[in-house]
Structure formats: C-alpha cells, structure tokens
Amino acid sequence: MRAELRLARSICSARPSRLLLLSAAVGLSVVLVTAIACAMASINAAFIAQLNTQVGTAEIRVQASSGKSMPIGVLDEVNKWEGVEHALPRLNGTLSLVIKLSTMKKIGPDELPGGYRAVDVRYATNSFVKGTDPALEIGSRTPRLIDGRHATGLGEIVIDARIAQRLSYVYASAASEGE
Fold first, then answer.
1. Helix %, strand %, coil % for the chain, to 5?
2. For residue 116, what is the enclosing H or E element?
3. What is the structure's pLDDT at 176?
4. Cα(38)–Cα(44) distance, rounded to whole angstroms?
5. Are 123 and 164 in contact (CB under 8 A)?
6. What CA–CA distance (Å, rounded) separates 88 from 75?
7. pLDDT digits over 56-72, tens only?
8. By the 8 A CB rule, do 107 and 117 touch?
9. First to last CA, the chain
10. What are the Cα distances from residue 49, in Å, to 4, 35, 148, 152?
11. Following DSSP, what letter does each residue of 36-84 receive, concatenated?
12. Which range among 45-49, 108-112, 139-143, 168-172 has the greatest average pLDDT?
C-alpha cells in the first residue's frame, strides 16, 4: 500500500469525527450549489416567460421613426419577406378606463333611519395598453388568463389583475382614505 493511502487511513481511523464533519461539509456544499443552480434556472425561466408575455418572441421589430403610425401596407410587405413565419401588428399607447357601478350607501338619519340607497360611483384608472389583432395574436401566442375569455372582436379589451384591482371599490376606498 502506498504511503499516502496509509497516512490518510490512519488519520481517518484516529479521528472519525473529522471524517464525519468533512463528509457533512462536502454534502451540504453540494446541496447548496444544487439549490442555487435550481433557483437561478427557475428565475431565468420565469423572466423569459414574463418577457415573452409582455413583449413577444420576435426576432425583428419594424417600427416607424419618431413614434408615428405605420402605413397598413407595411404588414403585407413584411409578410412577403423570406423566412417570415408570423407578422403581427401592434399599437402601444395609454388608455383611461372608467367603470360606473351602483353602490349601496347608507343615508342619513334625517332622510330615512337605517336606510340605504343606490348611488352610482365612478372608478377610473389609466393604463398602458397594447392594441393587437385578436385573430392573429391568439394563433401566435396564447396569453394565459386568470378568468374570463380572450378578446375576439373590435372594441374588446382584456385587463390584468392589477387593473381590475384598481377599478374596484376596495382600491378606491383605500385611496380616498389615504388622502
């Protein structure tokens, strides 16, 4: 037997607690490195999924200079290019969303003791929007919905959970209490 192996064997047999501590340290470091690698892979996958949802998976974007709208013929021209699988028109902008709901409000004791009446309450918020062609968009990349259905025609919108919350009574009452 070689001298190095005899020395290692005698050290390990003389101090078994050190061998156990060393094995535990190596095992825990392997577990830590694996956990960090899995977490990084999960974060990267979530980031890519979010980016694809918000921006899309385009390899090239054709945009008008100085923020002007594109002529409608540009989409037909882009579809004629070699290697183009999908060309989707989009319009970005801001939109004010307003909803009126009847809410039951308690009326004063002078009018009717303990009574309630319906009052129209206006909830409003501004949002950044992306205009799309629903038929082309749904066929290209289907957005994941929490509730409801996809927009199928002109004039329909799909809102995210944050916009729905901002158009709610709970959000409006909390914002008015903070003022």
1. 45, 20, 35
2. strand 116-132
3. 61
4. 10
5. no
6. 8
7. 666 677 777 776 777 87
8. yes
9. 83
10. 53, 21, 21, 23
11. HHHHHHHHHHHHHHHHHHHT---S-----GGGPPPPTHHHHHHHHSTT-
12. 45-49
Rg of the chain in Å (alpha carbons): 31
Residue 11 amino acid letter: I
Residues 114-132, buried b or exposed e (16+ Cβ, 10 A)? eeeeeeeeebebebebeeb
**Torsion sign, CA atoms 164, 167, 171, 175:** positive
Alpha carbon 169 to chain centroid, angstroms: 23
Q: 30-39, 45-54, 139-148: which has the highest mean pLDDT?
A: 30-39
Polymer length of the chain: 179
Round to whole Å and give the CA distance between 139 and 133: 10
* pLDDT band with cut points at 50, 70 and 90 for residue 76: confident
Which residue in this structure is represented by tokens 């709970």?
170
pTM: 0.41
Angle at 92 between CA 128 and CA 161, to 5 degrees: 35
Which pLDDT score, from 0 to 100, does residue 168 have? 74
DSSP state of 145: P
